[in-house]
Amino acid sequence: MPPYRVGILTVSDTACKDTSADKTGPSLKALIEGEPYGADFKVTQSAIVPDDHPEIISTLGTWSALTEEGQPLVQLCITTGGTGFSPRDRTPEAVRTLIVREATGLQHLLLSVSLQKTPMAALARPVAGVTADGMLIVTVPGSPKGAIENTEAILKIVPHALDLLSGGSGKAVHKAMGMPERQTEGHAVDKHGITHRHHQHHGHHSHDHGHHAPTPRSMDVSKGVAARHRKSPYPIISLQEAFDQILSNSPLPEIEERRVDASLTVCILAEDVFSELDLPSTRTTNVDGYAVASKSTLAGFYPVLSSKNYPGHILTDPMLEAHIYRINTGAPLPLGTDAVVMVEDTELVEADEVTKDEKVVKLLVQVPPNENVRVPGTDVKKGDLVLESGTRISESGGELGSLIFVGRKKVRVYKRPRVAILSTGNELSELHEQRGGDDGPVIYDSNRPSLQAALQSHGFQVIDLGIVTDDELSTTAALRRGCQEADMVITTGGTSMGEGDMLKPAIERRLSGTVHFGRVAMKPGKPTTFATIPPRAVSTTSIAKKRSTLVFALPGNPASALVTFHLFVLPSLRKMSGFPEPRYHLPKVRVKVLSDMKLDPRPEFHRVCVEPSSDEPYLVARSTGGQRSSRTLSLANANALICLPSSKDKDAKDVKAGEMADAILIGSL
Questions:
Q1: 511 burial class (0-12, 13-18, 19+ CB within 10 angstroms)?
Q2: What is the pTM of this model?
Q3: Which helix (H) or strand (E) holds 161?
Q4: How far is residue 525's CA from residue 456's CA, in Å, rounded to a whole number?
Q5: Residue 473: partners with Cβ closer than 8 Å, 6 or more residues away
């Protein structure tokens, strides 16, 4: 068995500035590679980052990325430092954003080991768990002594966990570690995060582990229509289970450095932005008027200087004695002046006959020092926090203006995912496509343009793959192209039980993908399918993907497609774009419904228009009419979805007009 790949991440502001200050990282490397623990370990990655949330996440996310063999680049990551109570100790918070399953037993072990040495260990905040791609992360203290004590404890037991995570049974590791084989029922977790129950029969495990894709549940198209399933092989799961599967398999965003301009709109900052200078950087005026030396300039008559009538004068030249300088709002004060008299407090005495410019002006007042003047640093001082990491560059322009105001030319943001879309169905036609002869009833493809509009309204780049015919090879080719060019593929149609439904077979049998779920207990949207396709299935010599591609196969009915897009696809895209966890899902508001809404055994999402009430202090919701999943018009003017509970969970058969309900906002009010 090859050695397990280990990464050591030192989190320290001090060590980041001076790498020689990192004593813990090298000590851990020597410990990990020098002692037998029933398995071989090799430190293949090491890095030092500051106590900075995005830096920690970016490094760990890179190490967690899958290799061509379908395993994480680093199988065991040990972070050292940043687990205490200092305001800069952010390691636990950063690590938790990557973890999809916490290893609470390891956390208890780390605390137990430390508490045996000192009661101060009660202030430690260890974290341990597994990322979506199967990397085990464990945090240890920053001191060499504490880090070694904690690491020694976990290295005695993690080989078994790493073997299970990489697709093994744990049997060989048990034997190498001198541990007895278990005779009772247990659980193993594969690399996809799926827990498998396993039993010991006659001294032998019966697992189906390894680096292969899960056994396909979809029909084998080559066997013909007669061999298709009569009942779906995909179990119906709850909405919450669907959300959990989607978010646990949606990767965290990558970070990129971008030029500061209008193209940053809707991006999310991946760093704290501090001002690098005082603003204003010099004394400036906040009114239109005349710059003066306050102590020597009394009310009276004065010749006027300006950049127009005295172009030889520059701001760093001393002011001519007994003169005043015309100045516009925001302009810096000339040398020797310390106040500004407003235009409203002056009178014109003489103008130049040729240029019509001011020659002499009468000041009606004397002003004190700093009158109408902004001193350096009034708006922002050097080192002030201007924008926090996680701030969205909104369409209103305020955040972009702030970046430019403090002179930032480049900034780190979370990379926006690219999305490919396609529709499936021999019956579909393009709206503007010329049709020849009598081809039967026209069914225009409204799903793809609707999804494209919705995606672009949220600022995502869309790759249009067009309409794909109902055959496995065409479907596979379109999916492969989408996986090569985008981070996510959205399809509509081909998800149910028809003879032309080729998506699941193409994903599972042609592209070695994993269908995480194929049916959801909801209305509309029951046949919604979510899958991931590994990079090795689509990589070529010119394309080397590092992460799996997410595939959302949405129902073909127009209303179902758009409802499931807002419920399932957008939360995934928001996570991949850098939104904080509380904002993955679209916002909910409480509304008063204005008409009866019948309940279904499945949770239902009723399309409504939410608006303020003219005579009541809350929002009201008006139904958009018939709610059939094929009725596209139910989404016209809809800006929200009423969350109707299952009739099984409520005594009444409907929600009555006048009752309050939750509504998910999918558009502006």
A1: buried
A2: 0.66
A3: helix 158-165
A4: 22
A5: none
